[in-house]
UniProtKB/TrEMBL annotation:
UniProt domain HTH tetR-type: residue ranges: 21-81
Annotated InterPro entries: Homeodomain-like_sf, HTH-type_TetR-like_transc_reg, HTH_TetR
DNA-binding region: 44-63
Upper lineage: Bacteria, Pseudomonadati, Pseudomonadota, Alphaproteobacteria, Rhodospirillales
Name of the protein: HTH tetR-type domain-containing protein
Pfam assignment, any one: TetR_N
Length: 253
C-alpha cells in the first residue's frame, strides 16, 4: 500500500504525458487531412480544433502557432519517412546499394504521400521555422541530421567501391561532397515531381517516370564519382524494381 502511494505521482504524470502525446498525434493527423483538402495557407486553427474536438486554447497549448504546427507535421512526416530507411539498412548487399535504395525509397515516400512532403518542404523556409518554437525547430534539425548521417555512413563505407582514395580527411571530404550532391539531386526530383510547373514543361512524363529518371541520374552520379560496376544503370533500376515500385507492382514474397 505504501509503495503504491509512493508510485502514484509518477503514474499520474505518465498518464498525463501519454494523454498529451495522444492528443498531439490526433492534432497532427487531422492537420494533415485538412492541409490535403484546403492547403496549409487556408488552414484555420479554429477548424482544426473543432475537428479534433478540443478548444483553440488547448490546441495552442500544444502548438504555439501555425508555423509550429507545420514544423510538428514535418517532424511527424520525417519519422514516417525514416521508418522506410530501415529497409535500406537491412538490405543484404553493399553500402552503395544501401545508399541507392535509401535514395529511391525517399522519392517513393514523397510520391505516395505528397501532402506530407509538402509539409516537410514548407517547413524548411526561414519564414516558417523562425516563427516556430526553438524546441520544435531543434527536433526538425535533429531529424534531418540523423538522415544525413545515415546517407553519409553508406557513402563512407562504400568509399573503396567508388575509388575514393587518399588520406582520411580527403576521403571524408570527397564522400561528404558526394552526399551533398546526391542530396540535391534527390531532393530536387522530389520537388519537381510534385510541381505544377514541371507538368507545364514536361507534361506527365516526369511524374510518371520519376523513379526511372532518378535511377539514371543516380547511376550517372555514381559513375562520375568512380563507381565501377557492370551496367550501373541496369543495376540501379533493378534495385528500384525490388524496393521502390508502387505498392501494386511490388513483387510478392
Amino acid at each position: 500500500m505504501i509503495q503504491w502511494m509512493e508510485d502514484w505521482p509518477d503514474m499520474v504524470a505518465q498518464n498525463r504525458m501519454e494523454k498529451r502525446q495522444n492528443r498531439e498525434e490526433l492534432i497532427l493527423d487531422n492537420a494533415g487531412k485538412l492541409i490535403s483538402e484546403v492547403g496549409f495557407f487556408e488552414l484555420k486553427i479554429s477548424d482544426l480544433a473543432k475537428m479534433c474536438g478540443i478548444s483553440v486554447g488547448t490546441l495552442y497549448g500544444h502548438f504555439a502557432s501555425k508555423e509550429d504546427l507545420l514544423i510538428g507535421l514535418a517532424v511527424m512526416a520525417g519519422a514516417k519517412r525514416a521508418q522506410k530507411f530501415d529497409i535500406a539498412r537491412n538490405h543484404d548487399g553493399s553500402a552503395i546499394e544501401k545508399y541507392i535504395i535509401a535514395s529511391l525509397l525517399d522519392l517513393r515516400f514523397s510520391i505516395d504521400h505528397p501532402q506530407l512532403f509538402e509539409a516537410e518542404y514548407l517547413a524548411l523556409a526561414p519564414s516558417v521555422w523562425k516563427r516556430a518554437t526553438p524546441a520544435r525547430h531543434q527536433a526538425q534539425l535533429d531529424q534531418i541530421g540523423a538522415v544525413t548521417e545515415m546517407f553519409q555512413t553508406f557513402l563512407n563505407a562504400g568509399a573503396d567501391a567508388l575509388g575514393i582514395s587518399g588520406d582520411l580527411p580527403e576521403r571524408t571530404d570527397r564522400a561528404r561532397n558526394l552526399n551533398l550532391g546526391s542530396w540535391g539531386l534527390g531532393y530536387g526530383i522530389n520537388v519537381l515531381v510534385l510541381s505544377e510547373i514541371t507538368d507545364r514543361h514536361y507534361g506527365q512524363e516526369l511524374r510518371k517516370n520519376a523513379v526511372n529518371i532518378l535511377c539514371d541520374a543516380l547511376a550517372d552520379l555514381l559513375i562520375g564519382a568512380g563507381w565501377q560496376v557492370d551496367d550501373a544503370h541496369q543495376k540501379v533500376r533493378s534495385l528500384a524494381r525490388r524496393y521502390a515500385a508502387p505498392a501494386t507492382e511490388m513483387p510478392q514474397p
